[in-house]
Amino acid sequence: xxxxxxxxxxxxxxxxxxxxxxxxxxxxxxxxxxxxxxxxxxxxxxxxxxxxxxxxxxxxxxxxxxxxxxxxxxxxxxxxxxxxxxxxxxxxxxxxxxxxxxxxxxxxxxxxxxxxxxxxxxxxxxxxxxxxxxxxxxxxxxxxxxxxxxxxxxxxxxxxxxxxxxxxxxxxxxxxxxxxx
Length: 181
Hints:
Elements: H1 6-32, E1 46-47, H2 49-71, H3 79-101, E2 103-106, E3 110-114, E4 120-124, E5 128-133, E6 140-144, E7 148-151, E8 156-157, H4 159-168, E9 172-174
Parallel strand pairs: 5-9
Antiparallel strand pairs: 1-8, 2-3, 3-4, 5-6, 6-7
Helix pairs in contact: 1-2, 2-3
């Protein structure tokens, strides 16, 4: 039986220990913030905080797995395994970026819509032609004279403000025609 090398023990401790310490600290920090209690009308509408947690955990977990595979190679790892795990890391990073960058702000006379890639659209209420609500999943699509914007209320914190604005404004709702079989 081979004796353990000090470097292997150190690498194992770092690969397992650092994520095991950092992830609970980040989750505790996020859980203790009372952001949802501080919400006022006019605050930005953002994706729920759970999206950030899931993105961080996903990215950290698969970074740890790749680090483990690099530190302790057993000859069975292939390029497609690294590629597959990297896709999960990119997915986690995408969720983190969505939480940080995406926002909708309701102002007095316009709507500010910022996408994941930080492209900001200022939409005057007068340019909103109509909106549509899909029955099967509850998603909304807002149609303007230039383009359309969609949002999923289940994933947005504070989306009730936007839904109530659409319901009580003079903007008409587009009704979908049901398909006849």
